[in-house]
Amino acid sequence: MLWYDNDDKTLFKDILKVKRECRMSSENSEDALTWNVFRYLEKNKLVSLLLNDISNNHHEIIDIIYWSYSQNENELWSLLKTARIEFGESFDKGSEPDMIILTNKTLFFVEAKFFSTNKTSGTGETLKNRIFNSKKYITGGDNVFNKIFKSNYESIVNDQKYELMRFWILGTWIAKKLNLNFQLINLVLDNRELNIESDFGKHLAPSSNNTFSRYTWETIYSLIKSNHIKNADSLAIMDYFRFKAAGYNNKGVLKKAFNIEN
């Protein structure tokens, strides 16, 4: 973890009160990557710049929510808690986007991937159980499922899009409650999930208010680099992107995590 001063420690301890799981210790931890990058952006007031680039619009930040912890409410974000209940999720297994960013125009959910994939429905008994037990994803929110998807529930789960489906359901429902647009961002490595927009998008009903998009860690690096902030934080995050390793290749040589030039 790059950021762990007193304010960071306080925030992180508060996050852990509501975060379902914490996987920070692994070199390939998506949680650690998310914390390092988004905490840098927040500390250096660059979150709006990122969202403007992603959405081609200007946004005023209202709340930055790490793994369901609302900094405005100092607890589990109440609207996410309500949405979990509405769609039949259990407290200990509720949907938990890596980042939720609430703005004056749009509700953003960020699903961050490092080396894991978007194939999240499972196999064997896990897959069967998820198909059999649809909770209230189909019936919740006054049957909103049929309004936001072209495909049926079983088809989406069989297509291994279980997690993205859940985020889409909860996010669109919350955004409508707030009279906001909704954007689900799949944040991935430059060379991965190249077709995810069409792979998941084929299941979505057309909407002028809701958007699913792919964005890359390497693009965030380029955005930081082009902003020309000269401080210790910026030097640290730039080195993090440039030199972060991703395990060894079959020849025993360390691989670079990100597809960028030193």
Brief summary of the model shown:
The protein is an alpha+beta fold.
Which characteristics define this entry?
7-stranded mixed sheet, alpha+beta
Please tally the β strands and state the result.
Answer: 9
Q: Gyration radius, to the nearest Å?
A: 18 Å
Mean pLDDT: 94
Q: From N to C, what is the helix and strand string?
A: HHHEEEHEEHHHHHEHEHHEE
Count of helical regions: 12
Distance between the termini: 21 Å
Largest sheet: 7 strands, mixed
Q: Report helical residue fraction.
A: 40-55%
Question: Outline, from the CA principal axes?
Answer: globular
Query: How many discrete domains?
Result: 1
The strand order across the widest sheet is 3-2-1-4-5-6-7
- What is the beta-strand fraction? 15-25%
Unreliably modeled segments: none
Specify the structural class.
alpha+beta
**Assembly level:** single chain
Descriptive report:
Helices cover 42% and strands 17% of the residues. With 262 residues, the chain is of the alpha+beta class. It has one domain (6-256). The strands form two sheets. Strands 3-2-1-4-5-6-7 form a seven-stranded mixed sheet, with helices on both faces. Strands 8-9 form a two-stranded antiparallel ribbon. The chain is globular. The two termini are 21 Å apart.
Set down the secondary structure blueprint:
Blueprint lengths: L5 H11 L13 H14 L3 H9 L5 E6 L2 E2 L4 E2 L1 H9 L12 E5 L2 E7 L11 H9 L7 H4 L1 H4 L4 H6 L3 H16 L3 E8 L7 H6 L8 E7 H11 L4 H12 L1 E4 L5 E3 L6
Parallel strand pairs: 5-6, 6-7
Antiparallel strand pairs: 1-2, 1-4, 2-3, 4-5, 8-9
